[in-house]
Specification:
This protein is α/β, with parallel strands linked by helices. The chain has 15 helices and 18 strands. Bound molecules: alpha-D-glucopyranose.
């Protein structure tokens, strides 16, 4: 755990729970709040400071819960609001904060507002309905494909994701008021933070121009969005210690850090390193770019290796092409899982010792890889039909114990099959098998999080040698990651605190990181 409680989001370790796949309390093969409550001990033992809960609201699940039909309740598949409140209280009792996922760009097509809009009510103004003979624009959606669906003769509505996720019209004051009230609803119930889904998309150019190179983008990152986050910040500030964390995919560093101005969001996910190749020069420049841009604005950097949208990093780092981008589909290309695991272990020590907050996606602490063996007819992700890539492979239920599926995922006898199949090899990756094994990924994460206490300790690069990522935090600690082809000597130190892989005598092998006490 990190020491500070004031401004906890600045250096917290935040664990992403994907409720469908964390733990299943009622045996229906789908994770739920009861399962999370029963397994909170795992998160306490891991030592995390906070949990970010992917959406748990009532939803037709057209996009796995990112199509919300009621922001003030819990989907029956996951439990009840009372159970969610109990979970928040129980997490607080063991010192774990809770971050709720809010999805402001769109709602479900089953949301009462959209149903009323379809019935011709004034709620139409809450969305983007346009009369036109042809599709109003040729915009390509975030999952690929078109962004307009026809409802009757010549009326269309806008959806940047699936047709089941109509976009809200943020020009409308009722939309703003509704989300301010939703924030208060969850802050009043003890939520310590809000993760803001697709945070840069909310506003659209009302003239609906086509996307043209060199022209401002009609629906990415319009300036008006900052005004919304300023008003959200005022609300968060009325409560103590609440954080707003934006999901902002944006290559332009300056535009990205605009979201982190002192009167806007507290933090935003940094996906730069996540997309970066396993390459010393590129990684170092990504880290430096992140540190400099955040220092400039006074905001804490964040470090993310995986989440519910991207290929798990054990798999990414085991491929010949170690980059990630939604436009470059590498599914099914050869993977060396041993190499990927070795690098993932080193990446954990790197990201857990850089300045800022670290995000852990559930299962990364178990060294899980992307399940690339899910039969196509079991895919549930709507992205698959539009982009030919399914995110289901990173969303597979966690293995907890035992030798065969569902590996303790479901807490009852004779449960239904998990909603996505688990690989046979995961019998070696369960929490149970890894606990107490000093060489396991789980014990590496537990030790690193326990040792991690860098509050206020400046980063200084140690080595000019480009193929080593080596830095100190304060005067007493160093992290060294060898990304060169050959083993290298360690800098002078008093104690070896942690090593991601065994040393080669006194030398640090390739793709290995160590934490040193100086
Ligand atoms: C975000 C979520 C993703 C979802 C999309 C639409 O990118 O992380 O899972 O599909 O928004 O809400």
């Amino acid at each position: 755990m990190s020491g500070s409680t004031m401004q906890w989001w600045r250096d917290a370790v935040i664990y992403q729970v994907y409720p469908r796949s964390f733990a299943d309390g009622n045996g229906d093969g789908v994770g739920d709040v009861a399962g999370i409550r029963a397994r909170l001990g795992h998160l306490r033992d891991l030592g995390v400071d906070a949990i970010w809960m992917s959406p748990w609201y009532p939803s037709p699940m057209a996009d796995a819960g990112y199509d919300v039909s009621d922001f003030r309740d819990i989907d029956p598949a996951f439990g009840t609001l009372a159970e969610a409140e109990a979970l928040i209280a129980e997490a607080h009792e063991i010192g774990i904060r809770i971050i709720i996922d809010v999805v402001p760009n769109h709602v479900s097509s089953e949301h009462p507002w959209f149903r009323a809009a379809l019935a011709g009510g004034p709620e139409r103004d809450y969305f983007w309905f346009r009369k036109s003979q042809n599709m109003p624009t040729n915009w390509v959606g975030e999952f690929g494909g078109t962004t307009w669906t026809k409802v009757d003769d010549d009326t269309w509505y806008l959806h940047l994701f699936t047709p089941e996720q109509p976009d809200l019209n943020w020009e409308h004051p009722d939309v703003r008021a509704e989300f301010e009230s939703i924030l208060r609803f969850w802050f009043d119930r003890g939520a310590d933070g809000i993760r803001i889904d697709s945070a840069a998309l909310l506003f659209k150019d009302t003239a609906l121009p086509e996307v043209t190179d060199g022209e401002p983008h009609p629906f990415h990152d319009l300036d008006a969005v900052h005004d919304v986050y300023r008003s959200w910040r005022r609300i968060a500030d009325e409560y103590a210690d609440r954080a707003l964390i934006g999901e902002v995919w944006m290559p332009d560093v300056e535009r990205f850090t605009n979201y982190l101005r002192p009167d806007e969001l507290h933090a935003a996910f940094n996906f730069d390193l996540l997309g970066c190749a396993w390459d010393p020069y590129k990684m170092r420049s990504s880290i430096e770019r992140t540190l400099e841009s955040h220092a400039h604005i006074g905001a804490p950097p964040t470090w993310v290796l995986s989440n519910h949208d991207v290929t798990r990093h054990v798999t990414r780092y085991g491929r010949a092409d170690t980059t990630f981008s939604f436009d470059n589909n590498l599914d099914g290309t050869p993977v060396d899982l041993e190499l990927g695991t070795r690098r993932a272990r080193a990446a954990a020590l790197l990201t857990l010792s850089l300045p800022g907050a670290a995000y852990i996606y559930q299962g990364e602490e178990l060294g899980l890889w992307e399940n690339e063996t899910i039969p196509e007819d079991q895919f549930q992700d709507p992205m698959y039909a539009r982009r030919g890539h399914s995110r289901d492979g990173c969303r597979v239920p966690l293995p907890w114990s035992g030798d065969e599926p569902p590996y303790g995922f479901s807490a009852v006898e004779n449960p239904a099959d998990p909603w996505l199949p688990q690989p046979a090899e995961w019998k070696d990756r369960t929490v149970q098998t890894q606990t107490g094994d000093p060489n396991s990924m789980l014990e590496l994460y537990r030790s690193a999080i326990r040792l991690r206490d860098f509050t206020g300790q400046e980063l200084t690069w140690l080595e000019e040698e480009a193929e080593l990522l080596a830095f100190t935090r304060g005067t007493g600690f160093a992290c060294v990651l060898n990304l060169s082809e050959t083993p290298v000597p360690l800098p002078e130190h008093r104690t070896l605190l942690l090593a991601s892989s065994p040393l080669d005598g006194a030398l640090l092998p390739r793709d290995t990181a160590v934490w040193l006490r100086l």
